[in-house]
User: Fold this.
Amino acid sequence: MASDTLSIADKIIAKPAPLTQIRRGTVFGAMGLLLVAVFFAFPIVWSALSSLKSTDDIVKFRYPLTWWTFFPPFPTLENYYALFFQLNFQRALLNTVIASAGQVIIAVVTSTLAGYAFARLRFPLRNALFGLLLVTAFIPLEVILVPLYEVVKGMGLVSTYPALFLPFACSPFGIYLMRQAFQSIPVELDDAARVDGASTLKIFWRIALPNVKPALATLVLIQFIWSWNAYLWPLVIIQDPSMQIAQVAIAGYKSVPNFPLDGPLFAGVTVVTIPLVAIAIILQRYYVRGLMSSGIR
Amino acid sequence: MASVQMRKVIKNFAGAEVLKGVDFDIVDGEFLSLVGPSGCGKSTLLRMIAGLEDITGGEIHIAGQVVNGLAAKDRDIAMVFQNYALYPHMTVRENLSFALEMRGEFKAHIEKQVAHAAGILGLEQLLDRYPRQLSGGQQQRVAMGRAIVRNPQVFLFDEPLSNLDAKLRVQMRTEIKDLHERLKTTTIYVTHDQIEAMTMADRIVVMRLGVVEQIGTPLELYDHPANSFVGTFIGSPSMNLLRGRLVGGDKGLVFEHGGGQSMPLGAALSGVVPGTGVDLGIRPEHLTLGDTGFAAKVVVVEPTGAETQVVADIDGQRVTAIVKDRVSIVRGDLIHLAPDTARVHCFDAGTGHRLP
Assistant:
C-alpha cells in the first residue's frame, strides 16, 4: 500500500521524459512509417522503372536478381511510344476517364440527395429503408454479375458508356457517408434558413452542401478510385474493343500469343497510376477529415 | 410590427401533450418574455409561432391573420437562436444578406439594408469575417443583425444569451432592450432566466408543464404571484415558503408554523378562512433580523458587499434573508427573523393558489 502511494506520488512529480528519449521515439516511429511507405511504394516504383526498359531487357534481367532487375540498364521511352502510337492506349484511357467521371458525378448527385433525405427529412419507414440500403453494401458484384448483365442487356446498353456507371448510381457507402456528414450539421442552421425563406432544396444546396465539403471530397476520391480500378464489370459488359477501358486493355497486353508486350504493359500501369496518386495527394487533407467526422476511422 | 394572439394552442409530441391550451395576447410593439423551467413548453411555443413546429390544436394569429397553415418564410418573423445558427461558410455580410436574397430583393437594396443593420449593431468592421473569427458577443450581434435586416413584424428570441459568460450576458441584455426601444418591433423572448425576463420584458408569461401559470408585468408577478410556483420562480434569491396553517386569534389571523412557532399576521389576510393549511411566502428582503419573529439557527452567511444573505433554519425549514447592514453573525448563532406582515403572501398548501 505504502509503495503504491509512493509510486503515484512519484508519477505526479515525475519530470517530463528527457529530450533524447523523445527523439529516439520519434526516430523509431518515422522508421516504421518509412518501412510501410517503402512496402507500399515498391511495386509502383518498380513498374515505373520497368516501363523505362525494353521488353527484351525486362525478360533478360528478370532472373537472377541483380540491380538491373529493378533499374533500367538502358533507359528508353519506346514503351510509351508503342503504347500511344501503336496500341492506341489513349482511347482506352479516355474511356476510363469518361466512366470514372460519370461514376463520380452520378454517385455525388445520388449520395448527397439521398444522404440529406435520410439525415433530415421525416418520412415513413425511413430507418428501415436506410437499413435495407446498408444491407445491399454487403452483396459482392460477383454474386449479381449475371442478373445485372441481363438487366443492362435488356436495356440495350451493352458496350455503351452508361453501362459502365449506371448500375452503380446508388452507392450505399456514399449515402451512408453523406448522411453522417449532414447529421453533424446543427439542425438550427436548417431552421434559421427556413425562417430566412429558403425551401428544402435551397437549404440543401446553399446551407447543407457547403458544410460537408470534407465528406464530399472523400466521396469523390473513393468513387473515383473504385471506378478507375474497376475490371470485372467492364470486362463483361464492354464487348467492343474501342469502348474498352484502360485496366482491361492493360490486362489484354499479357495475353497476346507469341508477342510479349511487357514493356508497354508496365508503361500502361504507370500511366493509370499517376491520376490516382495525384488526386489522392490533392484531396488527402479533406479525405482524412471526412472520414474522421463521419465517425469511421 | 404586429400583434400576436394565441388561441387555445395545443401541441402533442407522440401522444404526449406538451402545450395544453395556451391562450394569451401580445400587443403591437410589446416586449413579451416567456419563462419557465426546462420542459415547460416555452421553446416549443416559440417554434410554433415561427412555423418550425406544427400546431396540433388552436390558432396562432399574427397581425390578425391565422398563420397555422403558413410556412415559416411567409409569416414575416425573424428568429434568433440559442446557438446563433450563423451559416459557418458565409461571411457576416453574406449571413446578413441571405434572407433578403431568398426574398429576391435587388442587390442595391440588400447592400443598403445590410449597411443599415450593421450600423445599428456596430458590425461595420466585421462584415468580411467568418463567424468562426468572431467572439461570442460578436456572433450574438450578427445573429440579431440577421433578424433586423429583414425588418420583420415580430422578433423571436430563443434563449439568445445562454451561451455567453455572465458579464457579456448583462451587456447584451441592455443592448437587446435598447434595440427594442429603438425599433419598437413586437418581440417574444424565451428564457429560463427570470432575471433576464424581469429586466427586459414589458410583460412576462410564466409557464409550467405546458400551462400558462400567470401573465403580467414584472412587478405584478413579483408583488402578486398567482400561486406558489410563480412566487418562487420569480425573484432571486427565491421566495421562502413556510408550511403551516392559519388559525383565528383576538387580533386577526395567526400563522402557526409546522415546527410549532406562530406569528400574528394582523389584518393582512382578511378573507382567509381560519384552519386552512397554507404556505406562507416571504421574500428574503421582507425578513428582518431583530429580537422578535421566528427563532432560527444560522446555517450560512454570504456577504456580497452591498448586502448579506443569511441562510437560516426555522425548525427544519431553510429560509433566506437579505440584510442590508453589515452583520456579525456566524454559523450556529441563534437569531430572530421577523417577516413584514403587510407584504407576506399566502398560498393554499394543497393547490398552491394564492389566498385570499
Remarks:
- Residues 80-293 of chain A form a domain with the MetI-like fold fold (CATH 1.10.3720.10).
